[in-house]
Amino acid sequence: MKLKKVMKRIGLLFLLLILFMFVNNSNWFHKGDNSTPKLLAHVGMSQTYPMDGITGETCTAKRIFEPEHPYIGNTIPSMEAAFKHGADIVELDVHPTRDGEFAVFHDWTLDCRTDGTGVTREHTMKELKTLDVGYGYTADGGETYPLRGEGVGLMPTLQEVLTHFPNKPFLINIKSNDQEEGEKLAEYLSDLSDVNVDQLSAYGGDKPIQALQEELPGIRVMSMETLKSCLISYMGVGWTGYIPAACKDTQIHIPENVAPWLWGFPNKFQDRMEAVNTRVILVAGEGKWSEGFDDQEDLKRIPDDYDGYVWTNRVDVIAPLVKND
């Protein structure tokens, strides 16, 4: 008899625990405010391409869709267009140069997109300024190059971008895993007196991101290490409502196939992250190759009332659908 009573009590406690976990992480009681997602424009406005078969060696400029606009990603005109169309933040890529600058450009090498050759960071900014960043784009296997000649001199420095948009938010992608690069970027940003560093965030390799955060502790950062540290610990204890330290004052990029496993996603999870000053960015698919929410069908996969950021490669297409709902 005593064993039965003990087992009943254990069963009751277990049921109460399950009930608590459900109620504490349910979105049923969330009071929606009709907020809409905020938009992160990947490299501003750029030419897009099919994602099937993409690898780290793929030259994506040689497989673009037929251009629907004239913009080349990671250029100031493309960023102006992105903000004009409704981007809340623009992502850009940087490489240190031989003369102490940071060039805004996507690829590790120049051969795919430009009329230059070699490793991007092995050039001076003066040399990079002579290149045509629209040189390599083709939608028909090399029959025509619709952007060739349109990108001469358009590779900007990071300072030029931040000076041109002094009060706009940017997400900086560090393309290496070199600790020294993080230190150099921190020094570079600290020397820009006319730039609001509070508007900036960064992601990239573990080593440069750690170095950048140590030098500029107020900046939001993310690396694979910081992301895993946050998400794994949250999956373990987040059901209680407790937010691990690794999830505070940071930034997390959540692949859509991971998001449903997060306690309280979307609304309660988002509220918890906002309460600890953490920015949430939802990325499409596995988030491996900059997949974005780029058309009306993609938007159907975003949960109702989600009001964090979503990653898009076509802010011109998505913004009217999101902002006018």
From TrEMBL:
Record-linked PROSITE patterns: GP_PDE
Coiled-coil stretches noted in the UniProt entry, renumbered to this chain: none
Signal peptide limits: none
Residue stretches making up the GP-PDE domain: 57-322
One matching Pfam family: GDPD
InterPro entries (alphabetical): GP_PDE_dom (IPR030395), PLC-like_Pdiesterase_TIM-brl (IPR017946)
Matching PANTHER family: GLYCEROPHOSPHORYL DIESTER PHOSPHODIESTERASE, GP-PDE DOMAIN-CONTAINING PROTEIN
Protein name from the UniProt record: Glycerophosphodiester phosphodiesterase family protein
